[in-house]
């Protein structure tokens, strides 16, 4: 059950976009910061969401040419406990709440992020208005957006969920397939206008992450208006992600782009992504 602490401050509408504060995945890429690992800032239907704030999220959000103001966040969401997805969650909770002096916002995370193997420190939990435990088949309301977690991922022993963000009324939906081994049920679970896939490996490995071949299967099955690959390991980085995306686009018959650190993607697809 959510825990109520205090009322949120009024929210200001913002441009609808996804800002990629980091596109690196896998431990070596993150440890060496070959690519940044700050997660994604999603501004959708007047609601500001921060997804998977890995190491460097705060720095990346504040060193952009157009700085992001964490106090405008409505919620922070973790797909799972691994540090490349959660390393800055406590820092960003403090930033969202003015160091805890102005409690606000919501936190969404799998139960083990809060209980059995907690990555969210207990003292910062009092800084947010509500805490929700993500579950398979869950539906949650944040401002004018519904967030669903349709299926538990196969990602080792880490409790992991992707997310589908659906704005109330008109507007594009965003499906985010977080870290997982490929399995066919993913395609039915993640129908969205924009599909974001964490693609760590270039070729298939016996490991709980998607490879390029897996991404192609999912893009073909889901047929989004746009697919975005991100969260790259070294094999994809060496292969040049933009070239990998071009090959996926040719094979899938669907527009595919590779995310770049700092990239801003217009959710209505009315302009090209900008760095």
Beta-strand content estimate:
25-35%
CATH architecture: 4-Layer Sandwich
Low-confidence stretches: 1-14
Number of helices: 10
How far apart, in Å, are the first and last alpha carbons? 40 Å
Instruction: Compute the CA-based radius of gyration.
Output: 17 Å
How many beta-strand elements? 15
| Number of separate domains | 1
Sheet with the most strands?
8 strands, mixed
Order of helices and strands: EHEEHEHHEHHEEEEEHEEHEHHEE
Note the topology.
Elements: E1 17-22, H1 27-32, E2 37-44, E3 47-51, H2 57-63, E4 75-77, H3 83-86, H4 89-96, E5 106-110, H5 111-114, H6 122-125, E6 130-134, E7 138-142, E8 145-149, E9 163-167, E10 174-177, H7 185-189, E11 194-201, E12 210-211, H8 212-222, E13 226-230, H9 234-238, H10 241-252, E14 256-258, E15 264-266
Parallel strand pairs: 3-4, 4-5, 5-6, 10-11, 11-12, 11-13, 13-14
Antiparallel strand pairs: 1-2, 1-15, 2-3, 7-8, 8-9, 9-10
Helix pairs in contact: 8-10
């Amino acid at each position: 059950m959510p825990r109520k602490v205090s009322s949120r401050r009024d929210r200001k509408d913002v441009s609808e976009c996804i800002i990629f504060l980091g596109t690196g995945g896998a431990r070596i890429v993150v440890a060496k910061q070959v690519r940044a690992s700050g997660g994604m800032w999603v501004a959708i239907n007047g609601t500001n969401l921060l997804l998977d704030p890995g190491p460097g999220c705060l720095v990346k959000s504040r060193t952009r040419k157009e700085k992001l103001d964490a106090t405008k966040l409505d919620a922070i969401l973790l797909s799972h406990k691994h540090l490349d997805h959660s390393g800055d969650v406590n820092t960003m909770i403090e930033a969202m709440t003015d160091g805890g002096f102005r409690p606000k916002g919501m936190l969404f995370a799998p139960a083990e992020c809060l209980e059995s193997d907690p990555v969210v420190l207990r003292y910062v939990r009092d800084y947010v208005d509500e805490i929700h435990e993500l579950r398979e088949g869950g539906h949650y309301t944040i401002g004018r957006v519904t967030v669903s977690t349709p299926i538990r991922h196969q990602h080792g022993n880490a409790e992991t969920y992707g997310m589908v963000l659906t704005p109330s009324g008109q507007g594009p939906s965003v499906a985010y397939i977080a870290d997982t081994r490929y399995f066919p049920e993913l395609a039915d679970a993640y129908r969205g206008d924009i599909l974001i896939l964490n693609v760590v490996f270039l070729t298939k490995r016996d490991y709980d992450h998607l490879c390029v071949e897996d991404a192609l299967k999912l893009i073909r099955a889901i047929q989004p208006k746009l697919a975005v690959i991100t969260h790259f390991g070294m094999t994809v980085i060496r292969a040049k992600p933009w070239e990998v995306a071009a090959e996926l686009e040719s094979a899938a018959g669907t527009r595919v782009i590779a995310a770049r650190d700092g990239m801003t993607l217009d959710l209505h697809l009315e302009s090209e992504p900008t760095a």
